Amino acid sequence: MSNEAEILPNLLQDESFEIVMRGYNRRQVDDYIARAHQKHRELEARLARAQDDGERLRREMAELREARKPTGDDLSDRLRQIINLAEDEAQDKVAEAEAKGAEIREDAAQESKRIIDDARAHADKNLSQAQEKADQVLASAKKESDSVLSSAKQEAEQTVTSARLEAERTLTASERRASVINEGATQRLTALTKNHTQALQRLTEISDTLHRLLSAENEAGPLEKMVEDAVRQSAPRKQAPPAQPAPQAAAPAVKPMQATAPKPAQAAPAPKPAPAAAPPAAPAMKKPEPTSADTPVPPAPPAPPQPKPVRPAEDAGPSQHPVPPQQPRGPIEL
């Protein structure tokens, strides 16, 4: 082992490779170099064992020579011949060991060189293959990117075109719908205006009718009073004592009539809400109907004069003929 550094100077150095981008496969090359180093170590171990064997044989021969070195007197020819043969054999073994060691060293050097050359060739091959593959991948990626870019441009143009057409269709449909809505709104506004006008006319007619009814009711008041006066004047002649309560009873009868008569007059302001009812057409048409139905209510007050003023003078019979006031005038003149 002492001459190992001199015998195998290249085997003790670790070979290394430069690492480049997209170079050889590091795992494969590292495994290959590890196997080569293992073989180097095995060859070195064999060489060391051979050298140790040679050194051991030399020491043994030296020891034998020193221990059994016979003197000239003690040695016989046969012993001298045996010693010479042993020395020759030892020299042959030493020479054989040295030759074997040299052969092992040479084989180890050649094997290590071959392994290193194979590793370098394999690395160069992997590097060239990786470079070719990288070029192919780059070309394929560039081609694919160009194809994708072209497809994206076409799709974008189609999308823009379809969006423009859809926008035009939507705009046309919106304009058509807006025109239809405007026409419908115009027709509805015309109908509402017409209904409003009709409602105003209807309210005007109702107001006129109410005014006529109120005027008729106010005119009917004096007629009833004249009838009551005639009854009051004819009653004292037939029975004087009971004639006094008759006017008193008749007077209250007139008061309810006067009290009930103003009630329709209070209903006269009913036409005032007409402007508020004008916007909705349908309600404006419905509201005048109940007011027209309520118009017969004012004639109700003439009903009380039939029973109440006539009861004090049932014999005279004014209840059957309440209108002609000339009958009582005859007795008054007499």
TrEMBL record:
Keywords on record: Coiled coil
Annotated region described as Disordered, given as residue ranges: 220-334
Organism per entry: Actinomadura latina
Record has Coiled coil as a keyword: yes
Protein name: Cellulose-binding protein
Entry annotated with the keyword Coiled coil: yes
Coiled-coil annotated residue ranges, if any: 33-107
Biased composition regions of type Pro residues, renumbered to the chain: 270-282, 296-310
Biased composition (Low complexity): 233-269
